Amino acid sequence: MARYTDEELKEKVHNGFIVEYPDEMTEGYRKALIVQLMVQADTELVSAPAYFGAAKDAPSTNTMVSATAIIQDELAHANIAYRLLEDLGLDKEQLVYGRQPHEFKHPYGFDHPLENWAELVVANGLYDRAGITLLGDVFKNTSYGPLKRALVKVDQEETFHLRHGEMWMKRLAGAGGEAREQIQRAVDWMFPMAVEWFGLPDDMKRHSGQLDYKLKGMTNDELRQTWMKSTVPLCESIGVQVPAHWSEDEQKYVLDFAFPSQYDEDEKRWLFNEGGISWETVFERWKKRGPANRQFIESIQEGKAFRQMLEAA
After folding, report:
1. Which of 35, 232, 248, 282 has the smallest number of CB atoms closer than 10 Å to its CB?
2. Does the UniProt entry include the keyword Nucleus (predicted)?
């Protein structure tokens, strides 16, 4: 039996109480924490095969090593989150190897293959920035002690991934020609994808369990603004166009397209000219998963057969 009622625990964590053990949680707190950790773990895990596909396009041995180091970090970060889920009674083996591809909870953007070096570094620059924005807020505000301590290492390494992406975005954009065009094409489809990553607008949010239990501190719109405050100036500084701008009247970044919008995953192209769509349509797209979902998950789960073969040898 939990030590506190739900309302007592919500009040305690907002007054600074740090939860350390499962018997200090209510069932509501535990469920909200599991959802948060599951998304974190799955996102880190599935980023690895997405990055690996494009790392093979690295322009030199040194850059291949850097990209491989990032992939190794992402797998380690996934292991940390799955390990924390084990503390909550879940089976890591089942989570990684026992689920169907569509059951993983990573963002829809990571169901798309990265097809060249430019797409890889833009993913580092935009997606890893989204990850740092989300995890940085969790690190600063979370009421769950084990996660807060684990994120010290994770955030430091994610910062390296981000710097890698930003450095290469500047380098390729500065090179001009086809290199610059590849960066622009990658930003064209990944920028709105990252905007969508932060979820429903605040005025449509249907539940706020993670805020109620102080598992994070910022709302979806606040996180989205934090991401745009760094991403839009970066792209503008290197001459790459983004569908967003700073509004003096509203004192915030605003999008230059209907949000959310329809996306053509076969052509990796947003159909802004067709106007906005409902969030129900977005949820259907997310639930269906993207074009590389099965391929990426199967590439991860193949590791189990290889490990069993070695154990049997």
Report:
1. 248
2. no
